[in-house]
Amino acid sequence: MESDVTVRELAYLRGRGDSADRLESALREAIAVLAGSEACVAVEVVRGVEDPLLFVLCVDWTSVEDHMDFRDSPAMAEYRSHVAGLLAGPPEFAHYRSTAALAGSAARG
Questions:
Q1: Which one, out of 35, 69, 88, 94, has a CA that is 20 to 30 A from the CA of 7?
Q2: What is the DSSP letter of 31?
């Protein structure tokens, strides 16, 4: 993968049944840590409608390599401290690159 291509990380996080609402709050704080990284272009968390225990962390990074560098930084430990004990298991994640995008009619007004 080319290092100068912006990539999107999608991380799937499952909250424990008794802590999903706390996880939602914790993720609001945690993404501020991600957003503070020079390698982070944008970050968003979405919560499942049909499955409210499932959260998807969407992070646009300057490159996969820069994301991996962030994972080795002290800031990653700070990010993890916000969600520690609130997840049902380890997150699953992968990197993607956009191949096509359009705004829908509702967005165009």
A1: 88
A2: H
Stretch 68-94: mean pLDDT: 95
Calculate the CA 56 to chain-centre distance.
6
Question: How many residues make up the chain in this entry?
Answer: 109
pTM over 0.85: yes
Cα–Cα distance for residue pair 44/35, rounded to 1 Å: 10
Burial of 79 (0-12, 13-18, 19+ CB in 10 A): buried
Q: Can you give the residue range of the structural domain that contains 58?
A: 7-97
Helices (H), 1-109: 20-35, 64-71, 74-83, 105-108
Average pLDDT (47-63) is: 97
105 in any annotated domain: no
In a domain, 1, yes or no: no
Query: Looking at residue 13, which CATH number applies to its domain?
Result: 3.30.70.100
Overall number of domains in the chain: 1
